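In keeping with the milestone schedule agreed at the kick-off meeting, the structural modelling team has produced records for the first pair of proteins. Each record is given below as a sequence line and a structure-token line. The laboratory manager (R.T.) confirmed that both were archived under the project's standard naming scheme.
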Amino acid sequence: MTQTHEDIIKDTASEILAHAGFPDAQIAVYSAQEEERPFFVCDLRMEADSQFLIGQHGVNLRAFQHLLRIIVRKKIGGDVGLTVDINGYQKERHESLIQQAQEAATQAVRECAPVTLSSLSAYERRVIHMALAQREDVCTESIGTGEGRRVIVRPRTVGE
């Protein structure tokens, strides 16, 4: 019997979580639309210790996601997009970042001055840029290097 991509992701996540001491996690995997490659969401539900697996500012979650993605790509033999969410943390964080982006844009326009956001991961910076991409009154720019990289939201000047 051939396993589906969803089965491979679920089995691999379950194996990693069991070895890490989280054997009771409920795992659901579903396909999400993406034009260029297969993309999947691995949704974990846990009663206890979810904060430990998420880590401060999602650091542990991103590490788990990275490890799972590497193993799954090796098993599947191709480029597969994969995101992991634990108890809705990623979804809530995504919505929070969009709200933060809109508030920064409003502030930048109101004060006619750039607003610098705190340092963010590459994924989080991308969410900010995408959230404000359609606004004609502001532009965004990433500055800094490494862990200190952050987004600046600037009011657009005439002709920009």
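The second protein of the pair:
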Amino acid sequence: MVPAEPIDVIDLPEIAVTDVAVGEESVSFHVDQIGVPVLVRVSYFPNWQATGADGPYRVAPNFMVVVPTSNDVTLTYERSSLDWFFYALTLGGIALCFYWRRRGDVVYPDAIDAAVLPDDEPVARLVEGPVDEPFARPTTWPGADTATDPATHPVDRPVE
């Protein structure tokens, strides 16, 4: 790739960067000259804030540049309001999971409160039949005119 216009090279004076301290969310250092750009070998992200310098400016995915306005420069990584919003959203989702788990989402027939249903009404009726046998197999299928022989019915036919 060739630039469309020639690039003028500007020689910068050499500076001494001392007292470098790299923390988990901060970088600080001391420079002997103000106004000379300093390449910082830390991944750039918009949440970096510079104190004592202009920038930071992204020059590559893993580098940023600051232009010192004082001899002591500090870069700090600060959380944005969107970060705090999504942390709160995540905690709210986790709290709802515990709430729903404690509340329960499945109600079994024997757990239904007696005040909801009268004592003489069965909780679950799957087929027609006497009340004392709520799960009895019907002798006639819905829509059938005559009794079905279990040996010939497709559901009950023995596997050959």
